[in-house]
Please model this.
Amino acid sequence: MQRIAITGATGYLASLVQLYNRGRFEFVPIRRTDVNYSHPDEAERFFSSIDADLVFHTAANATTAACENDPVGTDLVNRDSAIAIGRACQATGKRMVFISTEQVFNGLSCPGPFDETTEPCSVTRYGQQKAAVDAWMRESLDDYVTVRLSWMFGMALPGVKPSPGILGNVLRALRTDTPTKFTCNERRCMTYAQRLAAQFAQVCALPSGLYHFASANTLTTYESARLVAERLGACAADIERLILPDTVRYADRFRDFRLDASKAQAVGIELGSFAEDVDLCLSDFGW
Ligand SMILES: NC(=O)c1ccc[n+]([C@@H]2O[C@H](COP(=O)([O-])OP(=O)(O)OC[C@H]3O[C@@H](n4cnc5c(N)ncnc54)[C@H](OP(=O)(O)O)[C@@H]3O)[C@@H](O)[C@H]2O)c1
Model:
């Protein structure tokens, strides 16, 4: 059985991937207590001697504000340690699978969706850190898969705590009766996280390269939030009262972060539309 070292092992996507692929791979979970990603040289030493066939690197500080507030510290974690792990993989003949983000395109003014040939342009430190790793991997590694994800969503499972997503944000607004704003000036390909977990084996076996992995979406984030509320069964009056349009955020420049996933789909990765993903998620969780 293939041995996969998985970093950020207790995080959302890593724990979901492990849950869905238990019998398929032998996972070697790497937690914060095993490696300090503030010290890239330590990370390189650790992964140079790890007994695994492939390294799936998910650990990162993915909070945009944290990256802006501590650019130097998060550069070490999100950029330099990822590159150090890549160097260790290259030196020891292991495939590296890395999760990148739609945020590498958040500085573009032209409309998406963007494919893998689009040059990244990011105005946030988090996006710049991920873009730097993507570029380094492409130039330096012989055997790698970079998966650029959009904003993932899902529900909690035993041992799996979703990071903030559109479904959780809408559910919270409805359940706590809290009017909540969603921006009208943004389009993203929000994707059900189980798409990744259920197709993890296929992702690990992709031909070496960069892939966009996201379901299609033509709706703004505000329209997407309304769709989620409808599918959750909220009545029209509650949707009007609780799911509010935010016309101010990103009014300066419309943000289109959408990813074109045709390349991954052409080699057999199954993705849908945002509405299909919401329905799939609610059906999986017996809504
Ligand atoms: N979720 C999304 O919508 C999304 C979209 C695009 C890309 N991504 C990328 O996907 C990956 C996983 O995301 P996620 O949502 O699963 O995030 P998550 O739940 O926050 O998990 C991140 C993991 O990284 C670990 N980590 C963070 N800083 C660390 C450090 N300095 N040293 C060691 N470990 C550290 C965390 O450890 P602790 O648990 O100990 O804090 C956690 O296990 C990230 O690389 C993220 O950038 C996520």
